[in-house]
Amino acid sequence: MAATIKNPYGLHPETGELVHVGEVPKGLDCGCICPACKSPLQAKKGDKRAHHFAHHNVPECASGLQTTLHLLGKEILATADHFSLPAVPFRTDAFHAVLAPAQTVEIDTVVLEQRLEDIIPDIILTSGGRKLMVEIAVTHFVDAVKEEKIKKLGISALEIFVDPKIPDFLDYERLQRLVLDDLDSKLWIYNAQAAAVEKDIEKYLRRVIEIRKVVEGYGHERLHGGRIFNCPVSSYKTRRGIPYVDFMSCVYCQGSRLVPCNN
């Protein structure tokens, strides 16, 4: 289906910029090449069909349209002043939560294809002092290897899917809305906020297990119904005149790391 969509964009060989077929003379005088295979293009500007580019004396290449959409997406972000972010979900087996709602942020700086250690993101945005990596996905998506490299960098990253089978996306304003404002097309590859929460939860669970092992050695005379009686650190409640703390207090208690609780 994508092969029937005519590409209205060619690449100017000297500037390396995309140009619309409406901006150039017809035929080979357009002076453009294919964004993908770099073969010469001719501008088809007849009266019956929509104006478009076609390869000259060679078969149409399979990736010209996809490369065009990828380049257009980066071009749109390079000059944008805002960007809409999808909500940041957080899921565990026990609960689901939204750490941050969908929001639109102002863009401070944009850098295209700058190397970060051993990966080269399509775009690096900066907003409010925070970096965000953006990948434009047309036919090639971020694989597991690159995802792991992104996680090691600790920089939030998301992917924008541009479907090459939808001809409307070759309309610049429509593609601009998709890249900048649409939320359904965006997916978090890695989110630093969610990763920090996950790390805190893992730390908390390790602490629970650690305290539980200590508490289980107290015996029934000091442990009853989730209460720990005669705590040597801080017993701020009483039951029938006997001081106690709740088990959850032990999880957050720094003193329990220093004072032998089995005295």
Task: Describe, in plain words, how this protein is organized in 3D.
This protein is α+β, with helices and mostly antiparallel strands and 263 residues long. It contains 5 helices and 17 strands. It has helices spanning 64-78, 144-153, 172-180, 192-215, 247-252, and strands at 9-11, 18-20, 41-44, 52-55, 82-85, 88-91, 96-100, 103-106, 109-112, 123-127, 130-137, 157-161, 186-190, 223-224, 227-229, 237-239, 242-246. The strands form 6 sheets. It has a 5-stranded mixed β-sheet. Strands 14-15-17-16 form a 4-stranded antiparallel β-sheet. A two-stranded antiparallel ribbon has the order 1-2. A hairpin with a 4-residue loop joins strand 6 (88-91) and strand 7 (96-100). Helix 1 (64-78) packs across helix 3. The longest helix is centred in the C-terminal third of the chain and has 24 residues, at 192-215. The radius of gyration is 29 Å and the shape is rod-shaped. The N and C termini lie far apart (76 Å). Mean pLDDT is 83; it is low at 255-263.
